[in-house]
Amino acid sequence: MRAQFHDHFSSHASAYSEHRPVYPAELSTFLASIVPGRGQVWDCGTGSGQAAVVLAADFDRVVATDASAAQLAHAREHPRVEYRLAPERDSGLPTGSCDLVTAAQAAHWFDLPAFYQEANRVLQPGGLLAIWCYNRTLVGPGIDPVIAAFQYQRVGPYWPSGREHTDAEYRTMPFPYERVGAPPLVMCQRWTRDQLIAYFGTWSSVRRCREIEGADPIPDIVTALSPLWPDPAEVRDIRWPLCVIAGHKPE
């Protein structure tokens, strides 16, 4: 789908590492329960390692690759995670060496046929391919429509091509294997209003809006949220439902 690497995050790699939410341990536990072994994982498009370090709790070794050197420079260290600069089409891993291949909030930016071909090569027979995304940011009935209006209306025109797959919660994504069911999984953080605003600042659409309009859209969401969340230091529960697609390579 894409013949070249489109880098949407290197310019704010430090903020991405600091202000993105953390995947739940239950996600890794679920994946580990349906793989043939718990040896090696290839986490493709790892960014700053948000998924890699979670997977390392259940697997012996995670090889985490990204095409952005800037992202990897801010990756989270873990003794069982090895970071490598590599595109989705060329992991550098031996054939049949992985029990699991993952792409967390990344597959919609990939050259999917090339990624799927490489994933199929490095997976052992019966190995699992899992891709997932998150789209909706949920705080509460009064705040959720305000966030949605910012996401789809204020900065909606500035999302890069590929984002439409996350809007559809990956229902429009092609997938090479028969899909297996996944339990409901939700990513949760207890954040202040300012921490949530900092997360919005990592969106690729916000960066593109600044570049094209010459104006920062973040004050707009601050103004909209302030009456509903007046104390910027008050901590509230933030939730992002995960949309997981997984399937086994045929044996």
When the domains are counted, the total is 1
CATH topology: Rossmann fold
* Class based on secondary structure composition and strand pairing: alpha/beta
Task: State the helicity in percent bands.
Answer: 25-40%
Tell me the strand percentage band: 15-25%
Biggest β-sheet: count, sense, barrel?
A: 8 strands, mixed
Shape: globular
Let me know the CATH homologous superfamily: Vaccinia Virus protein VP39
Q: SSE string, helix = H, strand = E?
A: HHEHEHEEHEHHEEHHHE
Q: What is the CA–CA distance across the termini?
A: 27 Å
The count of β-strands is 8
Mean pLDDT, rounded to whole units? 92
Structure commentary:
The chain has 251 residues and is an alpha/beta fold. The chain has one domain: Rossmann fold. The protein has helices spanning 13-19, 25-33, 50-55, 69-73, 112-122, 144-154, 163-167, 193-200, 204-213, 218-225; strands at 40-44, 61-66, 81-85, 98-104, 123-134, 179-180, 186-192, 235-248. Strands 1, 2, 3, 4, 5, 6, 7 and 8 form an eight-stranded mixed β-sheet that branches. Helix 6 (144-154) packs antiparallel against helix 10. It is globular, with a radius of gyration of 18 Å. Residues 1-5 and 7-13 have low confidence and may be disordered.
